[in-house]
């Protein structure tokens, strides 16, 4: 009877783990949508999102510690005959022992928290750059024209769409062998399903099969793509006023 208490606890852990992971991914997706301009930027909401993410990391830590406590108690009860109440007491004591060295600062170094803050920093830098361009006004037309020419050149040479997904790239990686770009999520998914394929760009002389070791994040190209999206939005806004 007592071991059934432990078994029920174990069965509930898998669903909780999945819910926590989904919650973290949802928060990171919101920040990704902000970076792509699909949602509006709000500092207070971002602070609330970070608090939610920290709550999720705390729940994840508690879950891991409880899982370890369950395994420990189950091992103790393997050849023992104890009551349900004794089993619950053992489980609670083991869990409390796991939690005694918990510190909030440990949550700050969680990989999801670091990823969130990196995305947030990129978002704020992009916003500051856009505000500086708006404040500069007409005097920056020459520089803006040069920037757009650079983007046109980039678009002509490598394209802004992933050759695999045919979607606009937002998180590009560069093939270090041939220099062509792909969307990270698309190429990662393809690599997980297929073992051997080459760069699909027409005229590419790279005969090597694509592997993870040949792919590197390209922050410079990513900024060019972001600038292109902002330029397109300004053109759309200007056309609305003209009409």
From TrEMBL:
A GO term for molecular function: zinc ion binding
Residue stretches of biased makeup (Acidic residues): 127-136
Pathway annotation: Protein modification; protein sumoylation
Pfam families in UniProt: zf-Nse
PROSITE patterns associated with the record: ZF_SP_RING
Transmembrane segments: none
Domain of life: Eukaryota
Cellular location(s): Nucleus
Region (Disordered): 124-146
UniProt keyword terms in alphabetical order: Metal-binding, Nucleus, Transferase, Ubl conjugation pathway, Zinc, Zinc-finger
UniProt-listed SUPFAM superfamilies: RING/U-box
Principal cellular location given in the protein's record: nucleus
InterPro entries: Nse2(Mms21) (IPR026846), Znf_MIZ (IPR004181), Znf_RING/FYVE/PHD (IPR013083)
Signal peptide positions on this chain: none
Similarity comment: Belongs to the NSE2 family.
Protein name as catalogued: E3 SUMO-protein ligase NSE2
């Amino acid at each position: 009877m007592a071991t059934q208490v432990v078994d029920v606890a174990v069965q509930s852990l898998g669903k909780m783990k999945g819910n926590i992971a989904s919650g973290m991914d949802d928060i990171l997706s919101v920040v990704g949508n902000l970076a792509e301009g699909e949602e509006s930027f709000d500092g207070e909401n971002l602070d609330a999102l970070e608090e939610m993410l920290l709550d999720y990391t705390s729940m994840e830590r508690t879950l891991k510690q409880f899982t370890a406590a369950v395994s420990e108690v189950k091992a103790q009860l393997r050849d023992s005959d104890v009551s349900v109440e004794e089993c619950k007491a053992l489980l609670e004591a083991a869990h409390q022992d796991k939690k005694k060295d918990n510190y909030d600062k440990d949550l700050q170094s969680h990989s999801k928290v670091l990823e969130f803050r990196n995305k947030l920093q990129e978002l704020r830098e992009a916003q500051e750059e856009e505000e500086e361009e708006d404040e500069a006004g007409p005097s920056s037309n020459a520089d803006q024209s040069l920037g757009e020419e650079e983007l046109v050149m980039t678009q002509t040479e490598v394209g802004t769409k992933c050759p695999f997904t045919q979607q606009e790239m937002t998180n590009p990686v560069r093939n270090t062998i041939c220099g062509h770009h792909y969307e990270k999520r698309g190429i990662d998914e393809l690599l997980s399903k297929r073992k051997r394929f080459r760069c699909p760009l027409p005229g590419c002389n790279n005969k090597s099969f694509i592997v993870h070791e040949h792919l590197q994040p390209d922050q410079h190209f990513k900024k060019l793509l972001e600038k292109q999206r902002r330029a397109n939005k300004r053109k759309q806004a200007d056309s609305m006023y003209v009409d």
